[in-house]
Each structure stands twice: as C-alpha cells, then as structure tokens.
Write the structure tokens for this entry.
Amino acid sequence: MSAKDSFFCVGGEETVRGFALAGVPGAVARDLAGAEAALAAAAGAGCAVLIISSPVAGLARAAVDKLRFGRRPLVVEIEETAAGGSVWK
C-alpha cells in the first residue's frame, strides 16, 4: 500500500471529488447502505486515516463508532453541508 492509499475519503460527491484532486481515493455515500459499504471497503483496504463527512457519519453512526474505537483507522470527521458542498463559502 502506498502513502496515498493510507488515506480514504467517504462523503458527498463534492467532498470526495475535492479529496481526489489531492490524490486521496474515496467513495460517495448517499444512503445507509452506501455508507456502510464504503466504510467496509475502507477498513478492508487497511487505510490508516478515514476522512468522513458529518452527514455520512450520521447515517452510519454505529459503524463509524465501531471503527473509531478500534485500533485502525484513525477516523476524522469533517463538516459538510447537506447538499454536499463545503461549509466554507
């Protein structure tokens, strides 16, 4: 796994696209099933840092908390508007 692969982003389309510009792979999650699938993929890939947007983390809070209290990955929750855009205008 390369250094870039040690990060993974789960969130809305704009958030994932923005992190992809910095070389961070990710998955867009629009519902609970998508969020759980993306979290499982990130954990299965062995990522070291999971960047997840607040709305998506809210959808799958139990799965996020399970990851957060485990050994890996480090879970970083970031703010995002409900529409998927940045809160920093």
In short: The domain at 4-78 is CATH 3.40.50.10580 (Rossmann fold). The mean pLDDT is 84. Helices lie at 13-21, 32-44, 54-59, 61-68.
